[in-house]
Design goal:
Elements lengths: L2 H62 L10 E4 L16 E7 L2 E10 L2 E8 L1 H48 L18 H51 L4 H29 L9 E3 H18 L3 E6 L8 E3 H18 L5 E6 L3 E6 L30 H12 L2 E6 L5 E6 L6
Parallel strand pairs: 6-8
Antiparallel strand pairs: 1-4, 2-3, 3-4, 5-7, 8-9, 9-11, 10-11
């Protein structure tokens, strides 16, 4: 992973963790603040109702006993709804009320006794202002808690992501370290240590498998070249003896061509297996020349299967572009072999070659759309494969095309045949 991408991913994770921490703090602090304000308001209203009820009973008792209650414009009595009460209080029902008038906040207690209504007012303006101040203090506390949560979230996130960032850096440079290196030894046995241990187990298994594949590739390349050299040397000796007739020379030429083709294929497979770019070392030829050679090579097979194999050349006057010959042959031969295997008896297979493309079309049973992508995977075969088909031909075609920057495509529908086309992009000679 590039350093810029790694930093972006780390910032994204850190931002997500901090936001999660802040949102949780906001939810908890907001809920607690709302519950505290709501419960305090309910409790104060209940206590005020009790206090105002006791106060109106006390003042009414003094009034009925002939004692001046001493609350002018705060204590009223008379028939309900009469002019004994100010107009803005006449419509109140018995019970406790909180009202605003003239920029003041009033608590009003209304109580009826023996057909008479008694009403007591108290000015709670300063108290309500203190309540508003306390509410703002709660909001300020909430804001402070959010700021603290944000700071703690940043600190905790950095502390949490520091070992993850170190592990990511070690993973990105793991290929340059000695085989069987274990990253988990640098971490405590927590979740990050478990993650490092899991990576160690997976990477070391892949490392061993890759090593086995590399040894196998080297062994195959070494062991196959020896019999190929023997075949080539024997062919040269036979040709020098000049004792073969025309049929013998034709057979000898086919053996030499087969040995040369096997050597080229071996070079191609080793190049793909090693991931190297040795295509510049190969001989180069045009797509038309490759198509002509493959037509000659596969015509006998098509005749034995009672199939028609033909070649069409497009833009014959266009300048021929040259590409690595072994790779062209490997791609086209596998496409032709695939068509001859699956198109069925009496089918027609047409090879088309142009300056910068190759195409193999058949009028066989076709391929369902849902299988178009999977058919290029290794070991995927058709419904009626030949006995010697391992399902690797189209996979090899795709790997060569990816290596060279070419593009292989498939157009096919059930009952309408198949068309495999290779656009020869990249660099041409």
């Amino acid at each position: 992973m590039p350093e810029r991408t790694r930093r972006t991913a780390r910032r994204g994770l850190a931002r997500h963790l901090v936001l999660t921490y802040v949102v949780l703090a906001l939810l908890v602090a907001g809920l607690l603040s709302w519950l505290s304000v709501w419960s305090v308001s309910k409790l104060e209203a209940h206590l005020q109702r009790i206090d105002m009820g006791m106060a109106v009973e006390r003042v009414r008792g003094d009034f009925l006993a002939g004692i001046d209650p001493g609350r002018p414009h705060r204590f009223f009595h008379g028939d309900p709804g009469s002019d004994a009460f100010p107009k803005w209080l006449q419509g109140l029902a018995p019970g406790f009320h909180k009202m605003e008038r003239g920029g003041r906040v009033w608590h009003v207690m209304v109580d009826d006794l023996d057909g008479q209504r008694y009403m007591l007012l108290r000015d709670y303006t300063e108290y309500e202002q203190n309540q508003v101040a306390s509410h703002w203090a709660a909001v300020s506390g909430l804001a402070g808690s959010l700021a603290l949560a944000f700071i703690l979230g940043i600190v905790a996130t950095r502390r949490l992501l520091r070992p993850l960032s170190r592990l990511a850096a070690q993973v990105n440079t793991r290929g340059a370290q000695p085989p069987q290196t274990r990253l988990a030894e640098d971490y405590p046995p927590d979740e990050i240590g478990q993650l490092a241990a899991a990576f160690d187990a997976t990477y070391n298994q892949l490392e061993q498998a890759l090593r086995r594949e590399q040894l196998f590739t080297a062994d195959v390349g070494h062991e196959l070249r020896t019999p190929l050299m023997v075949i080539s040397s024997s062919c040269e000796l036979l040709r020098e003896e000049q004792t073969l007739d025309a049929d013998g020379l034709a057979r000898l030429a086919r053996i030499e061509a087969a040995a040369s083709d096997m050597s080229e294929r071996l070079d191609t497979y080793l190049m793909l297996a090693r991931g190297s770019d040795a295509a510049d070392l190969f001989a180069r030829e045009s797509a038309r020349a490759t198509a002509q050679g493959q037509l000659a090579a596969w015509s006998a097979v098509a005749q034995r299967r009672d199939m028609l194999l033909s070649l069409q050349e497009t833009e014959p006057n266009a300048q021929a572009l040259l590409f690595p010959a072994p790779l062209l042959r490997a791609v086209l031969s596998n496409l032709i072999r695939n068509a001859l295997q699956y198109a069925g008896p009496h089918a027609e297979v047409v090879i088309t070659a142009g300056p910068d493309f190759m195409q193999v079309a058949d009028n066989g049973p076709g391929i369902a759309a849902e299988r178009h992508d999977a058919i290029f995977n290794p070991f995927v075969r058709g419904e009626q494969p030949d006995a010697g088909n391992l399902g690797l031909g189209l996979s090899l075609v795709q790997r060569i095309c990816e290596h060279q920057g070419w593009r292989v495509s498939l157009q096919s529908q059930p009952g309408q045949g198949s068309v495999f086309r290779v656009e020869l992009g990249g660099e041409a000679g």
